[in-house]
Amino acid sequence: MKISEQDVEYVAKLAMLEVGDEEKKALAEQLSRIVEYVEKLNQLDLSGIEPTPQVITSVKHAVRDDRVAPRTGSSDAGRTVKLFKVPRVISER
Amino acid sequence: MNLKNITADRLVALYRNRDLTITEVIKNVYDQIERVDKDVHAFLSICPERALDEARRIDGQIAAGEPMEPLSGVPVAIKDNISVRDLPTTCASRVLEGYIPPYTATAVERLRAAGAIIVGKTNCDEFAMGSTTENSGYYITRNPHNLDRVPGGSSGGSAASVASGTSLIAFGSDTGGSVRTPAAFCGVVGLKPTYGRVSRYGLVAFGSSLDQIGPLSKSVRETAQALQIIAGFDHFDSTSADTAIDDYVKGLDKPIKGTRIGIPKEYFVGGLDAEVKAKVEAGMRVYESLGCELQEISLPHTEYAVATYYLIATAEASSNLARYDGVRYGRRPG
Asked: What are the tens digits of pLDDT across the range B28-48?
């Protein structure tokens, strides 16, 4: 798959990056090379192979029992202060 | 005393015999940091007051005859993408400048419970993405063996700290080589534990299905000691494995005669530097002389590994780093 200069322009716009004309050309070439490299995975015949969503096979169910327990670890959350004080994000005009 | 010439177990023995105090060693570490780190730049931040307080506290316990922990008074450095309560954690990014985590990573918590003293947080490639430590948002770290060279990355600050005698054990994180590469570049030992072996709680996520915290040090023994301490299930990380932990330190004294070692033939193909190849082969000869059996094996999917890595790592990074959009997290101007 080839990445065009228009593709670069589009992605740069989404990322709010300014890209010069020279850079656009160079980036299109570089990105094309990366995608072409990754395309080599298409050579593999993966029919009949199950996806691997989890690499640890010994894990039972990772969700713990929903029971109230004393907090361990170093965080104060739920132990001494009950709440975190955070900066105001919405202000009155 | 030069920390470059001593290992953790020997240092702890010196404390135990009252030949040295922890306080003088920690002071020595900061003198060494002042001497070498203006050139090496292994650290992003240091915490001398806190470290010296800890040193005096543990010295007092030793003087009172209280039992020592396996790493009592051992100076350690922590990569700056691993949370330590009350210490800056920037991931070497300006995005997180000024962020002070309200909790400590489980691996660090366990290291501290074993007596280790944190001397500072180490530089890395921004958000652990890179292999040279040139992509830090603050400054580049240099290889202490030759300041014109890179220390490898992304855990370059951790490797450079151990190699320049400013810590004995350092934590790095490894997603696609970020502990192993700088360890190799700086001539120290680095280990990426098996995924799930060490809790990722408190490690700033890059590629969640690949990230692991791993120790760097000058010896295999210290590496085994560190892994022994940090390995094991943590209910704060649902991807940490709830399986038995071997006695790694005890395993060190087991004879390796008769052990069969696989040599993947796909690792010796074009692009391998002749000098590196010669060193690896010299290592193979060492094992042979110790009575190990070397056997050529094939890992046929090796050539697809990098392409697969770049799909998984970048997809997970994109998802993990979306939280730093500046509205929900990070710096708030004004």
From this structure: 999 999 999 999 999 999 999
* Residue B45, C-beta contacts closer than 8 angstroms, at least 6 positions apart: B80, B87, B88, B120, B121
**Measured between beta carbons, which residues in chain A are less than 8 angstroms from residue B86?**
none
3-state secondary structure of B44: strand
Task: Decide: B211 and B205 in contact? Cβ < 8 Å.
Answer: yes
The pLDDT score that the predictor gives to residue B42 is 98
**Can you tell me which residue has the tokens 């004309």?**
A21
Interface of B with A in 155-184 (CB under 8 A): none
Quote the tokens at residue B282: 């010299």
- Chain A residues at the B interface, defined by Cβ less than 8 Å, are 34, 37-38, 40-41, 44, 55-56, 58-60, 62-64, 73-77, 84, 87, 89
B238 touches chain A (CB under 8 A): yes
Q: List the single best residue of B112, B198, B209, B309 to mutate versus A (max A Cβ within 10 A).
A: B209
Chain A residues close to B195, C-beta within 8 Å: 55-56
Element (H, E) at B260: strand B260-264
- The parts of chain B modelled with pLDDT lower than 50 are none
Q: What was the pLDDT predicted at A92?
A: 73
Strand partners, B143: B146
Instruction: Give pTM, 2 decimals.
Output: 0.92
User: Are residues B103 and B17 in contact, defined by beta-carbon separation less than 8 angstroms?
Assistant: no
B102/A58 Cβ within 8 A: no
Residues B134/B92, Cβ–Cβ less than 8 Å:
no
Is the ipTM reported for this complex over the cut 0.85?
Answer: no
Measured CA to CA in angstroms, residue B5 lies from B69, B160, B162, B174 at distances of 22, 15, 11, 26
Residue contacts between A and B (CB atoms, under 8 Å) = 57
pLDDT at B73: 98
8 Å CB contact between B101 and B84: yes
